[in-house]
């Protein structure tokens, strides 16, 4: 059952979320020529993220940062894991994808900034990580942050990870996907919960979190119509996944998968992505603070 009973921990943490941090992460990730799963830049982006997360975790013996190598392509996924104090075998996951594309012809010199898709999601989840580490938060359940490789070519990175977790019988209690969090195509809605290839009960929990902690935000719902991001890799294995998205389908960012998916197209603002960082923080803390 989904309890919302950690207000004294969550509320102060929410005030620590900083737009400037989210903005600079989106900028940094957008500055790679591309982050395509097969290029040198795509590998560099993964290695740099690995190093950044290792630096953030410095000194914490309860945290491991690793790269998940994929056999068929060079770009690795990146995982930061904070071991739970009471129920370490129960895992809460927040993910986004670190790769970018301009379509199937993407090559070494293609320009694919992927500011919204999905630098924004990585920036949102990294801000959750930064705030929790800065406050020395210790989860009762294990909390994992994932930067998936190769989402754009068929959810391949998350599929490999979810398959391995399933094979190893890992207990993942909940997954949140953050893919495209910064382009507000529709000013009347802040968060759109994707209803297909996700878990309805957990979606209700996410909606309740928004109502409880972010009452100023408008939450709507919509369906993708297909397995449109990495949440589907977890759902496929029977794990509960939710996918809060930046807009309705009708108002979606038409610039993704082009060289024009830049921060400038979101007015050089990360105000929208901040909402998803906050939502992700409430999800992580409420779910990881409970133990049987
Ligand atoms: N297809 C997805 C983008 C995408 C996701 C959800 C919706 I609604 C519209 C578009 C993608 O490119 N993810 O990387
Ligand atoms: Zn994406
Ligand atoms: Zn995409």
Describe the structure.
- Helix 2 crosses helix 4 (115-134).
- The strands form two sheets. A six-stranded mixed β-sheet has the order 1-2-4-3-5-8, with helices on both faces. A three-stranded mixed β-sheet has the order 7-6-9, covered by helices on one side.
- The chain is of the alpha/beta class and 292 residues long.
- The chain has helices at 7-14, 19-30, 40-56, 115-134, 156-167, 200-213, 231-235, 271-288; strands spanning 63-68, 77-82, 87-97, 141-148, 171-177, 191-194, 219-222, 241-242, 244-245.
- The protein is globular, with a radius of gyration of 17 Å.
- It is built from eight helices and nine strands.
- One zinc ion is lined by residues 117, 152, 256-257.
- One zinc ion binds next to helix 4.
């Amino acid at each position: 059952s989904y309890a919302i009973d950690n207000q004294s921990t969550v509320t102060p943490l929410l005030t620590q979320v900083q737009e400037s941090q989210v903005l600079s992460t989106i900028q940094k990730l957008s500055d790679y020529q591309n982050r395509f799963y097969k290029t040198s830049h795509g590998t560099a982006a993964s290695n740099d993220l690995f190093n950044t997360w290792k630096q953030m975790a410095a000194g914490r013996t309860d945290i491991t940062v690793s790269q998940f190598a994929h056999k068929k392509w060079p770009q690795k996924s990146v995982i930061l894991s904070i071991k739970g104090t009471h129920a370490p075998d129960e895992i809460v996951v927040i993910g986004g994808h670190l790769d970018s594309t301009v379509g199937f012809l993407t090559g070494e010199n293609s320009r694919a900034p992927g500011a919204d898709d999905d630098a924004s999601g990585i920036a949102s989840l990294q801000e959750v990580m930064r705030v929790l580490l800065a406050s020395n938060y210790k989860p009762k359940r294990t909390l994992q942050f994932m930067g998936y490789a190769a989402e754009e070519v068929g959810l391949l990175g998350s599929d490999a990870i979810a398959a391995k977790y399933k094979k190893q019988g890992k207990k993942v209690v909940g997954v949140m996907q953050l893919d495209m969090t910064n382009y507000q195509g529709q000013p009347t809605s802040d968060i759109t919960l994707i209803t297909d290839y996700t878990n309805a009960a957990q979606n209700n929990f996410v909606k309740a979190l928004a109502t409880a902690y972010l009452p100023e935000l408008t939450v709507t719902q919509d369906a993708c119509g297909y397995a449109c991001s990495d949440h589907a890799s977890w759902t496929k294995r029977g794990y509960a996944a939710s996918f809060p998205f930046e807009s309705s389908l009708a108002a979606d960012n038409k610039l993704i998968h082009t060289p024009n998916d830049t921060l400038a197209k979101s007015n050089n603002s990360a105000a929208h992505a901040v909402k998803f960082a906050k939502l992700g923080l409430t999800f992580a803390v409420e779910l990881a603070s409970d133990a049987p």
